[in-house]
Amino acid sequence: MIVVSIGKGDIAPDFELPDQDGTPRRLSELLQDGPVVLFFYPGALTRACTAEACNFRDLAAEFRAAGVQRIGISKDPVGKQKEFADKFSFDYPLLSDPGMTTIEAYGVKRRIPLGPIATKRLTFVIGPDRRILDVIHSELDMNQHAARALEVASGA
Fold first, then answer.
1. Has this prediction a pTM greater than 0.85?
2. How far is CA 51 from CA 37, 43, 142, in A?
3. Active site positions, annotated
């Protein structure tokens, strides 16, 4: 298995994945409306991932004012993403990557899974030109991802 590592200054890999409603979403098309904050989380409906996703939801007005879109990705199937989005009233897409192709392309797949956790918790701030402006990594501070992403994207 090849683990790709991408970081600040690199061009973000383009992808197309279904959202919680089964609608295909392509990164290059989303970027036409401005910067994107792409956050990868290990599993829908888990305690830590719920805290992180709710923090992104709770900062909706700030992200909107900055013209920044929020997108979540996990390996969960569309149905579970739908359940997660509906239960917590998320106002942004949750993308389903059960084959982990995008997760691998972004270097988010763990080389050695931590039990059932096969995905790292990483957030990418991506400018309209697909250039990665920052990468936020914290497995324990769920609020750091949205706050730092907003700070970086606001200056984009």
1. yes
2. 17, 12, 6
3. 49
